[in-house]
Amino acid sequence: MKVGRTPPMEVRRILRQEVNFGCPVCGSPFLTWHHFDPPWEERHHHNPKGMVALCFQHHKEADAGAYTKEQIQSLKSKPYLSKPHPRAKFNWLREQVLLEVGSNYYISPKHILHVAKHDLTWIDRDGSGLNAISMDLRAANGDPILRMKANDWVLLRSVGDIICPASANSLAISVADESIRLQLRFQSLTEEKLRQRIVKRCSEFIWEPIRASITGFPVALCTVNGHFVWPITFRLTPARTTVPHKKGRISCCFKAGGGLTIHKDGGMSF
Ligand SMILES: [Zn+2]
Predict the structure, then answer these.
(1) Are the beta carbons of 242 and 251 closer than 8 angstroms?
(2) What is the Å distance from ligand 1's center to 253 Cα?
(3) Ligand 1 center to 62 CA (angstroms)
(4) Exposed end of the chain (fewer CB within 10 Å): N or C?
(5) Ligand 1 centroid vs 58 CA: distance in angstroms?
């Protein structure tokens, strides 16, 4: 049977957890998968014992022969991060960002996600005045899980899994015991690609005002989805925003300058 280059999901999860979700050489959470025992050229396999998660840079160095098998085994057992607390920065800074929060759209709002009087996601300006994303993700008891300040983020406690591709444009976190999930993704879209996306999810009706508010293409789209439990439980999906057991449910809203507000009683405004 032909073995594809990308390891199965379960193998990737084992490799991420083994290094505490950071490159064992430098701690970068943006990981790739290196086959070293035996090397991929010798035999195509996905045995996690003969593989290691590395950042793109250190993967290239490993491919060139920078580390012996013994040194890589040592990196696997004693990675750079001794606890699963990776940190990194997204290099996505723009004068204008289109936010896709669940299926709702906002152009460079100050408050992206305001829930029961707490800011969970908002816009900060970097030193040159460009838009960057900040975020406060917490457990049900209020303990911080992830803090992001102007695209610079750190994980503050152990989680079930954290997925960051080498393209460094997304972050996915899951905390299984609290059913918390966060998916954050940046992408750059042409006018046609964005139009197709919005018309497919919502309608031509919402596309027109969004198009009229965008100052230039390609535009940076930042997508936020997930299941959140603090300060109240709510869910953002590509189809709708819902607050379980409460009255709130909205989809396909657009506002230039405004974000999504979810009230304690489950009501929503945008
Ligand atoms: Zn590295």
Answers:
(1) no
(2) 41
(3) 10
(4) N
(5) 5
d(CA 209, CA 230): 32
- Provide DSSP, 178-244: GTEEEEEEEEEE-HHHHHHHHHHHS-HHHHHHHHHH--SSSEEEEEEEEEE-SSS-EEE-SS-EE-T
Residue 2 alpha carbon to ligand 1 centre in Å: 29
For residues 53 and 23, the answer to whether their CB atoms sit within 8 Å is yes
pLDDT > 70: what percent of the chain?
100
Q: pLDDT band at residue 133, thresholds of 50, 70 and 90?
A: very high
Distance 161 CA to ligand 1 centre (A): 19
Please list, in sequence order, all residues whose beta carbon lies within 8 angstroms of the beta carbon of residue 217, skipping any fewer than 6 positions away.
189, 190, 191, 194
| Distance from Cα 50 to the centre of ligand 1, integer Å | 18
Q: How many CB atoms lie within 10 A of CB 226?
A: 18
As a whole number of angstroms, the distance between CA 267 and CA 243 comes to: 8
State both tokens at 21.
Answer: 């979700």
Beta carbons within 10 angstroms of residue 125's beta carbon: 11
Query: How far, in Å, from the CA of 32 to the mean position of ligand 1?
Result: 10
Select from 36, 40, 89, 43 the least CA-distant residue to 65.
36
DSSP state of 264: T
CA of 150 to the centre of ligand 1 (A): 23
Ligand 1 centre to CA of 53 (Å) is 9
